[in-house]
Description:
Elements: H1 2-18, H2 33-41, E1 52-56, H3 60-64, E2 67-68, E3 72-73, E4 91-95, H4 103-113, E5 119-121, H5 125-131, E6 136-137
Parallel strand pairs: 1-3, 1-4, 4-5
Antiparallel strand pairs: 2-6
Amino acid sequence: xxxxxxxxxxxxxxxxxxxxxxxxxxxxxxxxxxxxxxxxxxxxxxxxxxxxxxxxxxxxxxxxxxxxxxxxxxxxxxxxxxxxxxxxxxxxxxxxxxxxxxxxxxxxxxxxxxxxxxxxxxxxxxxxxxxxxxxxxxxxx
Length: 141
């Protein structure tokens, strides 16, 4: 009986450890529109933590149809450790199309896995920005 319990315990324990470092959607740090605008301006509590790099993780084709002011485009598949366009960033904020687009959450998790710190998800992305009447670059007015 003891031997069977020990073997069962050894079989279960490694599986439990394998999942301990994964990030769930509940772990994602998100920023609201007001916080994002402060981060980009380097205002308030974000002043000492600048610079902030805003990353549109959609495809280049979608980025070119319209993106948030001052955002750079790094499609999710091109996110790598020590990416040269992120080397000066203290904060990295990712976003995608809107509320139903899970791409920004996936990019957030990928950046954490790659070793980035101070990563944030601007949930709602372009949809929220546009709804507030803020400038969308690349879009004909």
